[in-house]
């Protein structure tokens, strides 16, 4: 998009002495509404202290303020320097509306943060899947030989040895219970990936 013209104002003791059309378009005011106005009256309260400091102190580095525009506001990047205007020092300020630019930057930053969070969640899912599969394998591995040994023991014990068969039956039931708990984990396979999606990426 074509860059908007740079807004310019000349200020002395906080009062706007001169302004170009780009500044009047920026604040959506007529020339007679701008000239003679205190510049701070066109700045939102949250930015007023910074704007006042830059109007009174000779600092030339850029700064950002929120400018009033009717019921709306615009984020403006400003830079001021001292000049001689009609025989006396004054501050000339160049201002550029960066509202849309800043919104685009915030969207890009949000998209990056979203992608990072999704990557973190995917890594957590992968770790969880690996852990569960590993745990299922480790739990199931010792159960199989125990079942075999118990089966062989039951075959060797005659049915008349009731006192010996009771603890064997108890162990058998406990093994079956353990198998029923481990089985679903061991046979279900890896955890499927969660349907995580990133938000819309900025153009």
Description:
The model has no long low-confidence stretch (mean pLDDT 81). By secondary structure, the protein is α+β, with helices and mostly antiparallel strands. The relative contact order is 0.10. The longest helix has 42 residues. It is built from 6 helices and 5 strands, in the order ββαααβββααα.
Short description:
This protein is 52% helix and 21% strand. The chain has six helices and five strands, in the order ββαααβββααα.
Helix content: 40-55%
Number of strands: 5
Q: Specify the number of helices.
A: 6
- Indicate the proportion of strand residues: 15-25%
Spatial gap, N to C terminus: 13 Å
Residue stretches low in confidence (pLDDT < 50, at least 5 long) are none
Q: Report the average pLDDT across residues.
A: 81
Radius of gyration: 38 Å
Question: How does the helix and strand content classify structurally?
Answer: alpha+beta
Largest sheet: 5 strands, antiparallel
Q: So what's the overall shape?
A: rod-shaped
Report strand order across the widest sheet: 2-1-5-4-3
Order of helices and strands: EEHHHEEEHHH
List keywords for this structure.
203 residues; alpha+beta; five-stranded antiparallel beta sheet; 6 helices; 5 strands
SSE topology:
Layout: E1 7-12, E2 15-19, H1 21-27, H2 31-34, H3 45-56, E3 63-69, E4 72-85, E5 88-97, H4 99-140, H5 143-156, H6 162-187
Antiparallel strand pairs: 1-2, 1-5, 3-4, 4-5
Helix pairs in contact: 4-6, 5-6
